[in-house]
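Progress narrative, work stream C.
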Amino acid sequence: MRAKIVLDATELKIRNILLTFTKEYARQTGKQLTLRITGGWVRDKLLGRPSHDLDVAIDQATGEEFATALQQWMAAQSDEKVASVHTIARNPEKSKHLETATTKIEGLDVDFVNLRSEVYTVDSRIPKVEFGTPEQDAFRRDATLNALFYNLDKDQVEDFTGKGLDDLEAGILRTPLDPSETFHDDPLRVLRLIRFVAQLNFTLALETERAMTAPSIRDALQTKVSRERVGVELKKLVAGMYAAQGARYITRLGLAPAIFTLPEQYSPITPNWTVLTSMLDTADAVMPLIKFDYDKPHLWLAMLMSGMSHLTTVDNKKKVFPAPLIAVKEGIKLPTQVGNLVTKVLDSAEDLWLLSQQAASSRLETGLLIRRIGAEWPLCVAYSAIKYNNPSSLNGLYDAVHAMGLQDAHLMKPLLDGKQVSKLFPGRAGGPWLKEALDKAIEFQLENPNATAEDLKTVLLE
């Protein structure tokens, strides 16, 4: 960890612009402002990580007031076009508890907001927000290492919790206040801290982890937090460089049921969450042995949902759906295509493993399975390798698919289209037979990669 924040050339220009303007602002209004960059930028700069997310906290003005005056002042100082100010409205349901003004300075996005205090009620995670002191603003944050401020005027880091710098140095995630209070105020912070584990490879402080195990906290995460926000945090978690660490915390703390929920209009299911524990036990050893590229974020998402494999749920109209699809689409509000992908990964694992155990896989069987899975078949093969703890066989299957030229089998089209096939049987109306004929065409082409359209005509006529 660096002992001091070192600004790059662009950041230095931004600092000079803001400090120069605060003097002009004081002359015009009589308010002597103190500006502080807060949150993740301070943490990442001290860790030597790139960060271009500048959040500036103001002590005596709202973000919109300050940013608007700044934009007008910058426009008067230059003949060049100055970026406009965009105000992001308060949206408590998406964790935006205070109006934020954003603009561009020297090509970087800069957000402005006033220092604040937050007071929560028992039955809501939406706080009453008021102007606050730097100390109040620091202590209402999710972690001590995210409560560090960089004072632009003094050019120094401020640690109002008294623990942020030490925790950053030690790689510990700790809440500024009592963790039970912090998590009851905003249960989403449970998932946020685990997301930071996945991104930074840090560990949770013992008292912080212990508080996360409370049934009331898990219930609050499931019922008080919008599913969109849960999905946002989970998406960042599985994309983290240390997603395995985050997944272990989710398992150890028993959080999966609170994350992957089904709406009330769907019948309940009974996932086997112990499957994830066994997969994590083998993932560390197996993943380095997988010799091909695959989609790691979606692999981790599929592993987190492994306990829902092959489960179905019924809605109030008696329609049956794969449970993982609904858990993704409604439980964490990620796109339907992601839910379909996770379902496909879970459902195809056994078929891929069985195929990998054959002494010599047939072109037809292999090609049809690749077509059923689609473009993400390497991801499915990787998941199967972990689930069955057999990277050697699944690497062999991956190589066999390429050796047979079937890696794009899902894109294969019949050498004759529907109209051409229909002409072979004049006077016969379209119907199920035509689909069967086109399916037969694909099977013939998979078995005979050098076949021509004339060869296919002969087979279909026979």
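Work stream C, second folded protein:
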Amino acid sequence: MTTQQERHTALPLDLAPHTVAELGRQAVDLIVRQVAELPDEPASDYRDAGRLATLLRRPPAGEPGDFGTLIETFRQAAGQGVNTAGPGYLAYFPAGGLVSSALAELLAQVANRYTGVAQTAPALVAMEESVLTWMAGLFGLPSGAGGLITTGASAATLSAVVAARHDRLGPAFGDGTAYVTEHTHYSLAKAAQIAGLPAERIRTVPTTADLRMDVGEAARMIAEDRATGLRPFLLAGTAGSTSTGAVDPLADLVRLAREQGLWFHVDAAYGGGFQLTRRGRERLAGIEGADSITFDPHKSLFLPYGTGVLLAREPAVLRAAHAGGGRYLQDIHEVDGLPDYGHLGVELTREFRGLRLWLPLHLHGVRAFEEALDEKLDLAGVVHRELSADPRLEVPWQPDLSVVPFRLRGSDDANRRFLDRINATRRVYLSSTTLGGAFYLRLCVLSFRTRADHVEEALRVIRASR
């Protein structure tokens, strides 16, 4: 009889088809189990985290292991921490992670094609490009607009800042200034720092009472900086801030940027998906005037983490800022009508990312995403209405999208304890922020798995935890 050890030893790196089938069956069985259990799993669980963290710090052994045992260890590890895939996760920006997209990623990774240049996988690059062209049209960008799929909006923002710097400032850029608000995602300031801009060249524009960029103040600061010999070059608007989901007055900012000759960038990492809906298009009006847009499909298109998009009005500007070469690439040539993504962003080696978007969009249909996002806007309205009716709570801002900040009428310490009590139930998980110097809880309805009954449960938990 073959021993277990002999079976493990017989597993080569190049797996036989029947072995792939068996391991795949075990993996799919685990996926089915995970998805089936999501509705009843806690929103957060740290009870076994210490033991597993110690176990998983061990280095790999020289001898082979057992696949079933290994993926069971993964299952246990994934169950510790915050359950970002579950319906009770209402913190930060939930998405859930479409299983159809995960299956697409499995297929893409097994195919293991290189898409940094179109020549090596032209049909797959065409597939990826079709999604980007559709997205550019969704945001109202002109024909010829394009971009690339990244690991997230942070990487996309870096490429956008580099392109703006290259296009508007040239090689000497130490006197360039960029304009943000305190609610602009910090990835933009981080990108500017990496791109070589001094921290003092990132100007923080005051906001209005509804936490949007004050366009008049932005105009004043741009004029003052230009008068002192600085070179304003980048104005950043936000289409859905992290703290409140607020959308800046994008149309007014477009006009200001055009008048002043600034590159206009829109961070739509969270809010971009709502462009599929009528209400979202109304609230994001003006985004079509952007020079660059960053968007995270792993937020408001419900995809697994690690999927961002950079769109540019003129992709040639991205190429001018990022393209390079080497003698070892002399065999590579351009393919007519297809981009070389390695020349549009910071990455050279990149996997095929298009299928994780292309397959779910074609499989489910765009209308399914639109309907899900409309539901999230409706549910956020329910949360705002119900919490506003409670005299013990402050709910100062009507949600633009699906984020609702609120707090107890009391001290910051009382609100911290309030958040702790809510999260201690392990039925829902919320996060917090600071607005106007005060501690606020925030609830974001975004996951496709979060439905009306889950929102009702969250409201019950909040009321019972006051």
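The chain is about 45% helix and 15% strand. No further action is required on this item.
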